[in-house]
Amino acid sequence: MNKKNVVHIGIIWANPYSNNLGVAALAYSSLALLNDVCRENNIDARFTLVGNRGKEKDKISINNCEIFFNNVLGNDHSKWKSLARLVLYPRRCQTMKLLNLDIIFDISEGDSFTDIYGDKRHKKFLNSKRFFNLLRTPQVLLPQTIGPFNSKRNEEMAFKAMKKMKLVISRDKQSLDYTAQFLPENKIKEAIDVAFYMPFERRKFDKENIHVGINISGLLWNGGYTKKNQFALEADYRSLIENAINYFAHKDNVTIHFVSHVLSRRKSVEDDYAVAEEFHLKYPGSVLAPAFKSPIEAKSYISSLDFFFGSRMHACIAAISSGVPVFPMAYSRKFNGLFSETLQYKWLGDCTKETEDVILEKLQTAYHQRLAIKEEIGHLNSNVVSYRLDSLKNQLLKSISNVKFSH
Question: Which CATH class is domain 210-368?
Answer without folding.
Answer: alpha beta
